[in-house]
Amino acid sequence: MALRLFWIQFHRELVSVARSKEEALNPLLFMFLAISLFALATGGDPKTLQTFAPTIIWVLVLLANMLSLEGLFRRDYEDGTLEQLVLLAEPGFVPVLAKIAAQWCFSGLAMTLLAPVAGLILFLPSTILPTLMITLILGTPALSLLGAVGAALTVGLRRGGVLLAILVLPLYVPILIFGVSAIMQQGNGITTDAQIYWLMAITMISITIAPLLVHAALRISVEQ
Hints:
Blueprint: H1 2-19, H2 21-41, H3 46-69, H4 74-79, H5 81-88, H6 93-121, H7 129-153, H8 161-187, H9 193-223
Helix pairs in contact: 1-6, 2-3, 2-6, 3-6, 3-7, 3-8, 5-9, 6-7, 6-9, 7-8, 7-9, 8-9
């Protein structure tokens, strides 16, 4: 029953986001426009871009993910669907997890698949691209899960974007550190096992706890 509820909600969210092309493409456009600006700002110097490429890519992925979080629950909140979803669904965290999974597909997963292109634009060596994709595929689910907690807490606010950033950014710092560190150490020929394991651990903990926290936060928001 829970699995069926998950797939129904997941399919609904995918269709909804796919119909809104702006919502689906905005994070990706933001990422590549920002990369182009970084390249222009440094004068296109390959050494400079290569040095800062891991940090640039991870920070832009983080910001692009936040760009898609603000509307994660807002549309359903405004039309009343969220109240039915949170109060009537059993178990309540399942449709929440489905919404987060759909958001990740159009943000974290999409940016992970396009990361090699971004890396080549920033002159990142091709030997480092696999590590870049591994860190993103392991770290971006945690970005979506932890970010969803902030989105749930601010869904009832008209201008919750700033508050969302204040709540979420501190939670993103460890993921950013381990993600960037793994890519840099790979470039220096140092093993990256520790960073990979930490990213896996953060994502596993997030999957376990975040849906429950999001569901509780949404209940508070819709009952006010």
